[in-house]
Specification:
single chain, about 100 residues, alpha+beta, Double Stranded RNA Binding Domain, 4-stranded mixed sheet, 2 helices
């Protein structure tokens, strides 16, 4: 799957990009028709400790899934987003297979 990582208001390091790629690649075992993913990593200027936002958009034929999570670290936000997407993809796969 093609994963595009976009960093907003900061520069992203290779380690974080690799983590995002590796974590989102795992989604393909739940639904193999995933075309691509766009990941937007943002830092909000707040006094709050949970100021890291990960917005993940997954493209599948006929649909797009968007998940937005805000956490203390980007890794945690990406992990939570991937778990949510995993549930969505499993639901979609079950829905499609029940129509066949």
């Amino acid at each position: 799957m093609k994963v595009s990582v976009h960093a907003v208001n900061f520069t992203v390091d290779k380690k974080l990009v690799d983590f995002v790629q590796e974590r989102l690649d795992k989604l393909e075992k739940y639904y193999d028709k995933v075309v691509s993913a766009d990941v937007f990593l943002k830092v909000e200027k707040t006094s709050d400790k949970e100021n890291k936002i990960a917005e993940v958009k997954i493209n599948v034929p006929g649909d797009d899934f968007l998940v937005k999570k805000q956490c203390k670290t980007f890794e945690e936000a990406v992990e939570l987003s991937a778990e949510s997407l995993q549930r969505m993809l499993v639901k979609r796969k079950e829905k499609i297979s029940s129509h066949i």
